[in-house]
Amino acid sequence: MKQTYLKSSFGVGSLIHHFNTAQLDKNITLPRVGDFVKIGFEISEGQKTRIQTYKGFVIAIRGVGIAKSVLLRRSSKGFCSERTVLLYSPQVKEFKILTHTNVRRSKLYYVRQLQGKRARMLVG
What we know:
Blueprint: H1 12-23, E1 35-45, E2 48-62, E3 69-76, E4 79-86, E5 92-100, H2 117-123
Antiparallel strand pairs: 1-2, 1-5, 2-3, 3-4
């Protein structure tokens, strides 16, 4: 005997989608690849909490919805570091776009090989 299933608007997929869209912060301005951003993280050290800022160049954006993350690259005194940041994480307290560079790629992984003035133009 063939069993038929009724399609419901309250399936598991729609419940997850509804929950994720409710958790999104609509006030945040989403960065684009090529932006130079400043992100403030809440750091708790024992009883005290403070906000630590991280300035970097967005070289990649991944994920959709509540799982959206950006890959930031920062350079200081010849040493470069990269950090992946979840945009809707509860640790992210402030987010500001400082400047924007017009780029023609969706992923700027080639910036890792640039040195000297070429790298300086992109990073800020």
